[in-house]
Amino acid sequence: MMTKKKFPAFAVALGLLGTVSCSNDDNDTPPVPKADLTFNILKLQPLTEGAQYEGWIKVGEETISTGKFSTVNPDQKFSVEKAKLDAATEFIVTIEAPGDNDNIPSDTKILSGTFINNVASVTTNIIGDFNNSTGTFVMATPTDDDPDTPESTMNNEFGLWFMDPNGGSPVAGLKLPILPKGWKYEGWLVTKDTPVSTGTFSKLDDVDDASPYSGNKPSPNFPGEDFLSNAPQGLTFPADGDVRNKKVIISIEPSPDYDQATPFYIKPLEGKAGEETAPVLNKMLVDVSQLPFGQVSK
C-alpha cells in the first residue's frame, strides 16, 4: 500500500509566503507620472465622414500622440506622460483617416506651434500664408468649342476657368501659396445651394485632376470646368451650370479627402460671377477669417 508523505506545516506556510512575496515584486512598478496638456483653440470645425483630429508633441526626433478628438472645447485637457510633455518643443494637429489606429502622424497637418515658456501659439502657417492671395476667373466653355459650329462659342456662361486670357497669352488667374503634402486646392461653383467641384489641383498653371462635366475638346492648362453634361444628382446641365451671378469658391482640402461632396471649411478665396463672359475677368476676395488658431499649454 502506498503511503502519503507529510510535509511540515511550517514548510507549507513558507512556500505560500514566498509566492506572495514574488507576486508583490511584480506589482511594485510605480505608475508613470502624467500631466495635463490644455487646448484653447478657436475656429477648429468638426470633421465629417469619420475623420478625426489628432494632437502630437515633438520630443527630439520623436513624435508622440496626445490623443484623437472630434471637437474642441475651451480648456479641453489631455493627459500626457509628464517627462515627455516637459521635454516637448513643438505641438502639431493632424487630420487622421476614419478608423486610423497607428502612432504615425498623417501628412495632413493643420496646426502647429513652438512651445515658449510652456505655451505654444498654434496657427495654420504650416499649410501656408494666405494673406496675400488673389484670384480671378472667366466664364468660357473651351471643351465644346468647334470652329465648324459657331453656336458652340455662344454658351460661355456654362464654364468656369481660373485664368486670365491676357489678350491671347493666358496666365494663371490665382495667386496662392504652394501647399505642402497632405493638402490640395479645389474650385467650387455653388448653384441651387449645391456646391459642385471644378476639380482638385496643386499647380495654378496646369489642368486639374478631373473634368467630369466637360466636353471632349482640349481644355486650357489651368484649373476649371465646363458644366455641360453628367450633372450631379438634383441638378441638370447645362441649365444649372450657368455661372452668372453664382458664388465661386477656392477651398483647401485634405488629401486624401474623406468628404468629397462639400468644401472644407478653410476657403481662402471667394467671389461672385458677374454677367459678362470671357475675356471679362471676375475677381475673388481673400478671406482668412475662418482660419483656426489658438494656444496649447503644458
Brief sketch in words of this structure:
This protein has 298 residues and is mainly beta.
Outline the structure in words.
This protein has 298 residues and is mostly beta strands. It has 2 domains: 34-128, no CATH class; 134-288, no CATH class. The protein has helices at residues 9-26, 82-87; strands spanning 34-42, 52-59, 62-69, 76-81, 90-96, 109-116, 119-122, 134-137, 159-161, 163-164, 171-172, 174-175, 183-191, 194-201, 224-226, 247-254, 269-272, 282-286, 293-297. The protein has an 8-stranded antiparallel sheet. A 7-stranded antiparallel sheet has the order 12-8-18-17-16-13-14, with no helix packed on it. Strands 9-15 form a two-stranded antiparallel sheet. A hairpin with a 2-residue loop joins strand 2 (52-59) and strand 3 (62-69). It is elongated, with a radius of gyration of 29 Å. The model is unreliable at 1-25 (pLDDT under 50).
The global form is: elongated
Query: Helicity, in percent?
Result: under 10%
Note the gap between the termini: 75 Å
Structural class: mainly beta
Largest sheet geometry: 8 strands, antiparallel
Give the percentage of residues in beta strands: 35-45%
**Widest sheet, order of strands:** 3-2-5-6-7-19-1-4
Extract low-pLDDT stretches.
1-25
The multimeric state of the shown protein is single chain
Total strand segments = 19
- What is the mean pLDDT? 90
Q: How many helical elements? A: 2
Give me the strand/helix succession.
Answer: HEEEEHEEEEEEEEEEEEEEE
Rg over alpha carbons: 29 Å
The overall number of domains is 2
